[in-house]
Amino acid sequence: MASPIPQGGRQVDAAAARALIGPLTALIAKACGAVAAINRRAMSVADKADGSPVSEADLVADRIIAEGLAQIAPDIPALSEERCQPVAIPAGSSFFLIDPLDGTREFIAGRGEFTINLALITDGEPLLGIIGAPALGMIWRAIVGERAERLPIGADGVPGAAQPIRTRPHPAPGQPWVAGVSRSHGDPRTEAFIVARPGAIRERLGSAIKLCRVAEGTIDIYPRLSPTSEWDVAAGHAIVTAAGGHITDSGGAPLRFGARPGHYLVPDFIAWGDPAAAEAWKRP
Fold it and tell me: Helix H segments across the chain?
């Protein structure tokens, strides 16, 4: 279980994040390999109290990440979807926020759109994010204010050479938006938002891969105007931001993470590839 951060807990800055990102990337690659090796036809699946599924893969990835973080950064508490309890976080302190398997329904259905998400939160904002996609053999990672990149996962499970990624500019007048849309979690508000952009092309995907596509410039916008969990968003938030994009709530305000222990919901958000488009949208 996640432990409360002591009063005056550690704050991780960009310099410390640089030292952590290599070992954390290797840890996510290890978890990706373990998940990829699971036989989906024979694995165990159970239901949580909220009715959402939890698979053998969720638990395997969670165990690997928990054990790895205990070695890599034992002084930084970790909050995982599978090990969730209220955590007292002093202002400015840092903690890991983890979704061991985002897109469990996609995983169970045999699709490749599932991810392993890890974020490092400092003072309520994602500073570092890593997203691994086991079925795609790819990792996206970033340190906000420094760089965003993607790395292939080799057959040996070792991450390959990093390639910088960048969001793309707002489509020119008359050109269609490409909007990321959840494959499993549609809602009327999100659909109305997309309809307001005539000609928008819907790219239906599962999990945090939608945020990765915004970061690498193949999707212009990803609106999610219904509740989701902080661990679904935090790693992608760091990656989109570091790649030049912008994420806000539906009113244009920044998102905060870990602000209310025991309440880890994001009511809604919009990920914009081009911050200028977000600013234009906020103006009356």
Answer: 14-36, 56-72, 104-109, 188-195, 209-215, 230-242, 275-282
- Residue that has been written with the tokens 């790649």 in this structure: 243
pTM: predicted TM-score of the whole model, two decimal places: 0.92
Tokens of 216: 């690498």
Give the chain's domains with CATH numbers: 14-164 (3.30.540.10), 178-282 (3.40.190.80)
SS3 state at 28: helix
> Does residue 130 contact residue 235 with C-beta atoms inside 8 Å?
yes
The answer to whether residues 255 and 228 touch, using CB atoms and an 8 Å cutoff, is no
Residue 124: closest CA among 243, 238, 21: 238
Handedness of CA 138, 143, 144, 149 (dihedral sign): negative
Q: Express each pLDDT in 142-184 by its tens digit.
A: 999 999 999 999 988 999 999 999 999 988 888 899 999 988 7
What does the pLDDT look like over 87-136, one tens digit per residue? 556 666 899 999 999 988 888 888 899 999 999 999 899 999 999 999 99
Q: How do 78-80 and 94-102 pair as beta strands?
A: parallel
Cα–Cα distance between 228 and 213 in angstroms, integer? 19
Range from 25-29, 44-48, 77-81 carrying the lowest mean pLDDT: 44-48
